[in-house]
Structure to design on (1090 residues):
């Protein structure tokens, strides 16, 4: 049957695999005699292996029969152990392995009837093809005839498909493909393909099943979980040493609970059991999707990581409300929090809120010592420690487990096993039992038991197991154990079985024969976990043992990773290869190859869709975060001209690239890509499509970021018009665009136009999501900012406080959105001189952000800057400086050396250092900030104007007035060009220029500038604004110099009145105003008033 097997392997299985994948099913074909010699296929252990594989391959089976009866195993193959496990083998000596496989796989298993297929080759095909095609002898011929007769009879009785006399291997391949496609269609109809929610639930249930096979109940633990599930308090934390059975406890308790309380809604999530189960964002997304389905909620679930994190507590609250309405329990079980990927410092658990878990919403978590356990301990949640097995529990577990395989220990052996201290750990005990049932023949059982109990701990025991694997499973391929397990260790997520077979293939074959790998895979069993088709270590003990045994040098690790990188690089671009390849290349330090890998446009789209921050981290590591945009632009042009790319694919890639460059502040590279994306969306989707509106909004955002506000506005308005026509006036995306336009109008000093848009957006969100949704809080913050910038602080404050109250109630007190609200409110309090209220809020916001995102995140850098500004304003420079420097260090590490955020940090440092009379340092930072902003934002951006002003202030402070003036004039010109002549920033710059002119003896030239600044601030911010008070004071000072005392004094008094009203009588600005009045009277000779 070599020709048939080869044809099936080369042609039929690949077609079937694709057919299965369309139905979200994975095909694993097993032919233990493909690709190996006859000598290899007739070993004594082959029979056991064949029977094991048939069991694991159910429910499908195909049998091919020609004229040969096949290998008959000798007496040594029917060992006492095998007969004990498979009692049906008694009386079947002298039967071929083929016949025994058919008996075990089909004829003795009635449930297999509908999924089994037999094919008999035409006897005429064998004639003239040599004796290898003919019966071995007359006895074998008779047995083959009898076997076929029995198969015919069973097929007729059980309606099993039988194809007789297929003419040649090619016809067989066609028949097998036709039959199996029909069987797969019947069991997995295309119309019933499970969605990703069902697939996730299925995968986690499959893992749970592996933990339920043999379980000895722990009554105290079961009772503790029952009490928690029926109670109303905080979440329960399961604790215990590694291998103590926490996962098994949860899996078995959940199965029991579902049987007893079928109306309860239970979601189990075993972190580490599937390929993406350790990603905290995907975990939240899965729970939200499950809750949405159960509650039948009509709201669309969040999509982006930021939205998922923001809305997760809201969906938890919905689950609790639904459970309370139905009178049931909603139970979420999260196993092994310690195995979370630490992206965004997920193990700190800031993403997991505490507040919603009460009443009918119950949370069970388990963890090992580490960051997750520390975070849980800080919350004060109650815990239950799973204690080691008692001696009696060990006895019962060992006896029950071995009985599954027809094995048992005598009482002496059982007592010795149960009495060993190490077997108090369930994992240690199970490893020993697995080894005994495989290697502990009756004759050697005592010696093997002594050996394994002598290990003393799990690492030593696993080293013994690996040694045994090398002895038993490397007959066909030397080094198989170390190579296979070493490659799994070296991979980021593990390896698929097909990848392992391909990587270990002999030179003359496309893959390692399954017969060479299957015995090792069967022996390892639960030591390897199948996570959505990817095999990885079932526990860290096994991983560590493999590393210590096979990967004990850096050179060995590099060799394994290089082998994997070469293989993944040779494969098509998929989510799988794109996840592994760049990670491997980074680990190898293969910088050139990593660069080329990231520049592949198809791979870039996959990487950016999955995790933009990881993609950026690769470029920062390469040192090309500021130059990658040009490389991507050039590569995209070449890629987009290839004939194979559909216009929509090109538009998608352009959107991803422009978004990535925009986020990285590579605006020059992002702009042509965004324009291309707009053009292609219009061409492929139409000018009135929502995709076109999105592209237009993205383009407008870029123009706004680069200071081209007049160009951005019509694009935003067109995007809004499209959504109003296509999605209706109440669409949430429309609310977002309205809010964006309001922000742009506010930036161009058109608050009167911005406010109705902001209020309309708020009303739309409240109407759609209710008045207590976090998205309402975000919109309230935007409206409050508008009030604040138009000097309506009394109206802004309650909006900020309402936003804070909403987020604390919906999201919990430690959510990043709460930090945003605290920061906004604190900044408002600063403006009203309430420093003692503002500072604790600012510090609390900082604590939340650091706990949520870790010590190196751009959001933390922003919060450090905000606290630094507060400390600087209260003259605590020594406290502010380390905060500014830490912010700078964070942004440089996470965004690269030339990002606008880095320029912001440098500017803050420069201003503070100037106030601390360290002008040389200040100037160095200010010039670097200017260079960064001009490079990133262009010479006409308002941030560049800020930089020129700061540099001018430094020159002025160091007596270089002639050098300062052109800098300050240039800043004024940029502000006027970008923001318009009536913007408060223009007023501030006019005041700065007037101050400089005053210092150079040109008070007369300064006066009209100061009067214009005052007029702008009074019109835009109000006649009693803080800016107006400062302008009045400065103008009065000028008039004093010009000897116009009568005009100056009322201005001083007006400034004093505003400052006393707004800042309080003890504020330094009040003292400044009073001193101005005193100085005026002294100069005017009016000593009576002094």
């Amino acid at each position: 049957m070599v020709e048939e097997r080869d044809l099936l392997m080369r042609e039929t299985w690949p077609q079937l695999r694709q057919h299965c994948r369309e139905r979200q099913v994975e095909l694993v074909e097993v032919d233990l005699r493909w690709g190996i010699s006859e000598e290899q296929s007739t070993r004594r252990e082959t029979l056991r292996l064949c029977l094991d594989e048939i069991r694991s391959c159910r429910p499908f089976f195909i049998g091919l029969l020609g004229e040969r009866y096949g290998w008959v195993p000798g007496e040594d193959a029917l060992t006492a152990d095998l007969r004990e496990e498979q009692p049906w083998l008694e009386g079947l000596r002298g039967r071929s392995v083929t016949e025994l496989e058919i008996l075990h796989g089909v004829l003795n298993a009635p449930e297999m009837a509908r999924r089994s297929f037999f094919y008999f080759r035409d006897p005429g095909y064998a004639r003239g093809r040599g004796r290898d095609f003919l019966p071995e002898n007359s006895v074998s011929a008779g047995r083959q005839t009898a076997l076929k007769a029995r198969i015919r009879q069973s097929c007729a009785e059980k309606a099993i498909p039988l194809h007789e006399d297929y003419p040649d291997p090619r016809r067989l391949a066609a028949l097998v493909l036709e039959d199996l496609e029909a069987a797969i269609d019947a069991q997995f109809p295309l119309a019933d393909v499970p969605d990703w929610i069902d697939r996730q639930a299925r995968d986690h249930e499959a893992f749970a099943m592996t933990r339920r096979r043999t379980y000895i109940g722990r009554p105290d633990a079961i009772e503790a979980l029952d009490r928690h599930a029926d109670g109303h308090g905080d979440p329960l934390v399961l604790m215990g040493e590694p291998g103590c059975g926490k996962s098994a406890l949860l899996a078995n308790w959940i199965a029991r609970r579902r049987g007893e309380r079928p109306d309860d809604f239970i979601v189990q999530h075993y972190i580490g059991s599937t390929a993406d189960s350790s990603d905290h964002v995907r975990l939240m997304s899965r729970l939200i999707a499950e809750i949405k389905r159960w509650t039948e909620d009509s709201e669309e679930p969040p999509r982006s990581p930021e939205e998922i994190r923001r809305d997760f507590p809201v969906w938890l609250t919905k689950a609790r409300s639904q459970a309370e309405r139905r009178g049931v329990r909603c139970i979420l079980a999260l196993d092994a929090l310690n195995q979370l990927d630490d992206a965004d410092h997920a193990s700190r658990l800031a993403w997991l809120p505490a507040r919603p878990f009460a009443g009918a919403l119950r949370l069970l978590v388990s963890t090992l010592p580490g960051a997750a356990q520390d975070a849980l301990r800080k919350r004060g949640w109650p815990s239950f420690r799973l204690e080691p097995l008692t001696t009696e529990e060990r006895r019962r577990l060992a006896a029950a487990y071995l009985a599954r395989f027809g094995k048992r220990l005598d009482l002496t052996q059982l007592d010795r096993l149960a009495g060993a201290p190490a077997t108090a750990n369930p994992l240690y005990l199970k490893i020993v039992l697995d080894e005994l049932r495989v290697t502990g023949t009756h004759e050697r059982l005592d010696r093997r038991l002594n050996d394994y109990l002598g290990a003393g701990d799990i690492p030593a025991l696993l080293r013994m197991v690996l040694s045994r694997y090398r002895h038993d499973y490397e007959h066909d391929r030397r080094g198989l154990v170390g190579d296979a397990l070493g490659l799994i260790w070296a991979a980021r997520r593990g390896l698929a079985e097909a990848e392992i077979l391909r990587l270990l293939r002999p030179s003359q074959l496309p893959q390692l024969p399954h017969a060479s790998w299957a015995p090792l895979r069967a022996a390892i069993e639960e030591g390897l976990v199948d996570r959505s088709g990817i095999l990885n270590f079932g526990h860290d003990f096994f991983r560590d043992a493999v590393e210590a045994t096979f990967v004990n040098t850096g050179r060995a690790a590099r060799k394994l990773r290089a082998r994997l990188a070469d293989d993944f690089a040779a494969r098509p671009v998929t989510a799988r290869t794109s996840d592994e390849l760049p990670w491997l290349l980074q680990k190898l330090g293969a910088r050139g190859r990593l660069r080329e890998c990231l520049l592949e446009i198809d791979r870039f789209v996959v990487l950016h869709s999955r995790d933009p921050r990881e993609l950026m981290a690769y470029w920062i590591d390469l040192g090309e975060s500021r130059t990658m945009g040009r490389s991507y632009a050039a590569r995209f042009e070449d890629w987009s001209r290839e004939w194979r790319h559909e216009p929509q694919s090109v538009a998608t890639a352009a959107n991803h690239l422009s978004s990535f460059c925009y986020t990285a502040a590579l605006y020059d590279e992002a702009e042509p890509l965004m324009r291309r994306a707009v053009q292609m969306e219009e061409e492929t989707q139409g000018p009135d499509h929502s995709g076109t509106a999105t592209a237009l909004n993205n383009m407008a955002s870029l123009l706004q970021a680069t200071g081209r506000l007049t160009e951005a506005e019509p694009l935003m308005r067109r995007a809004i018009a499209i959504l109003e026509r296509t999605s209706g006036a109440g669409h949430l995306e429309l609310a977002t665009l309205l809010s964006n336009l309001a922000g742009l109008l506010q930036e161009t000093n058109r608050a009167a136009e911005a406010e109705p848009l902001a209020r309309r957006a708020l009303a739309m969100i409240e109407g759609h999501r209710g008045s207590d949704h976090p998205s309402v809080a975000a919109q309230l913050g935007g409206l409050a900012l508008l009030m604040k910038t138009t000097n309506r602080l009394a109206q802004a404050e309650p909006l900020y406080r309402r936003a804070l109250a909403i987020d604390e109630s919906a999201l919990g007190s430690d959510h990043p959105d709460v930090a945003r609200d605290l920061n906004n409110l604190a900044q408002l309090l600063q403006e009203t001189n309430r420093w003692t209220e503002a500072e604790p809020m600012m510090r609390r916001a900082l604590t939340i952000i650091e706990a949520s995102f870790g010590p190196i995140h751009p959001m933390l850098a922003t919060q450090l800057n905000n606290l630094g500004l507060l400390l600087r304003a209260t003259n605590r420079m020594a406290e502010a400086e380390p905060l500014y420097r830490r912010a700078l260090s964070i942004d440089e590490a996470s965004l690269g050396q030339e990002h606008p955020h880095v320029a912001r940090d440098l500017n803050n440092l420069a201003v503070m250092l100037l106030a601390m009379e360290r002008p040389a340092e200040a100037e160095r930072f200010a010039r670097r900030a200017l260079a960064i902003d001009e490079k990133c934002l262009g010479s006409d951006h308002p941030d560049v104007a800020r930089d020129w002003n700061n540099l001018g202030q430094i020159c002025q402070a160091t007596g270089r007035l002639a050098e300062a003036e052109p800098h300050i004039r240039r800043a004024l010109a940029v502000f006027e060009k970008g923001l318009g002549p009536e913007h408060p920033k223009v007023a501030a710059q006019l005041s700065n220029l007037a101050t400089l002119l005053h210092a150079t003896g040109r008070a007369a030239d300064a006066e009209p500038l100061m009067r214009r600044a005052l007029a702008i601030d009074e019109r835009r911010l109000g006649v009693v604004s803080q800016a107006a008070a400062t302008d009045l004071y400065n103008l009065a000072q000028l008039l004093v110099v010009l000897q116009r005392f009568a005009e100056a004094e009322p201005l001083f008094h007006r400034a004093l009145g505003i400052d006393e009203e707004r800042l309080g009588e003890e504020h330094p600005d009040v003292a400044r105003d009073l001193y101005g009045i005193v100085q005026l009277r002294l100069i005017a000779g009016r000593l009576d008033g002094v």
